[in-house]
Amino acid sequence: MVEHPEVITLGRRRESRANVVEARFPIVEVERGGDVTYHGPGQLVGYPILALAGEERDLHRFLRAIEQALIDLCATLGVAAGRRDGATGVWLGEKKVASIGIAVRRWVTLHGFAINISTDLSHFSAIRPCGFAAEVMTSLSESLRRPVALDEVKGRAIYELGRRLGRRFMA
Hints:
Layout: E1 7-10, E2 27-29, E3 36-39, E4 43-46, H1 59-76, E5 82-84, E6 87-92, E7 95-105, E8 108-116, H2 140-144, H3 150-165
Parallel strand pairs: 1-2
Antiparallel strand pairs: 1-3, 4-8, 5-6, 6-7, 7-8
Helix pairs in contact: 1-3
């Protein structure tokens, strides 16, 4: 679990670069799936690096487990989150609170998720996050209408990810 300095990352989708509106932050191409996203202060980024074996070797199942862990995390804070058909990530109604992009090499997972805790949402105006208008993005602080610290969420995120991925992660 980390909190990145301001950066825009481009996934493997060909249209990723076209979804950069303004290059006001460093841009890094990464090997994860998905489109363009912003990372920065107030955002919890998780990289569950796991060796998948047996029935775990189902990437959609792995992706949905990460989504469900983040949905469960939101529920622990009293926030009703869910999925949106055709749009990977975690949604609070019509607003997106978390993005997910993974890669796998020899059945070892790479990359992961970014959930907006107290992120400055105006920074998303530099991109069209995952091809959406920047205004689609939200944060837990905005949803709860109170400041939320990363430390308040980090341990819960580790627990929920471990639970959904059948692992016990240490904080």
